[in-house]
Amino acid sequence: xxxxQKIAVFAxxxxxxxxxxxxxxxxxxxxxxxxxxxxxxxxAPVIEKARLAEVPVLALSPKTFENKAxxxxxxxxNLQDKGAEWLILTGYMRLIGPVLLxxxxxxxxxxxxxxxxxYPGKDAIERAFESGDAETGITIHYVDExxxxxxxxxxxxxxxxKTLEQLKTNIHKAEHMFFPAVxxxxxxxxxxxxxx
Length: 196
Hints:
Blueprint: E1 5-11, H1 16-26, E2 32-39, H2 46-52, E3 57-59, H3 68-82, E4 86-90, H4 98-103, E5 108-112, H5 124-130, E6 135-142, E7 152-159, H6 164-195
Parallel strand pairs: 1-2, 1-4, 2-3, 4-5
Antiparallel strand pairs: 5-6, 6-7
Helix pairs in contact: 1-6
């Protein structure tokens, strides 16, 4: 029996990628266990999705902390309590700081809706749409201290259609399929390395 890797999912919004990951775990196409949802917006819809999936939720407003380090220290203590081995960022609208980077070196993975290095940061889908490019896509990468600058794990291209709404739909569809598949690949390799 393969040890399931314990992952914590970080999200700020609607949580469709959280849902996709949870569904893939349920269908046994992703060998992982979500031990915690970390959300920096206590009213975000992703929280309800996590409750329905019976995943523990840590919803904290960073504004209530003295500084970023204090916020991340609280998050870290919860992650350690749950035994999280990986941090998976799905639409988490904050830069990860030194507290978490130092605690999880090369174990933080982000999903970004563009073909990095193009369009890092916010509004990547809109910026790609307005660029006149024929295609954009999604990037899955390790997180470092920069804004969407970490080493790229994998990318998938998505053609840019006539409307922005259609592009958003196509990007989300691609994410929901591609992200869990790439995670499975990365976690499997790491598990085999650990066991060998």
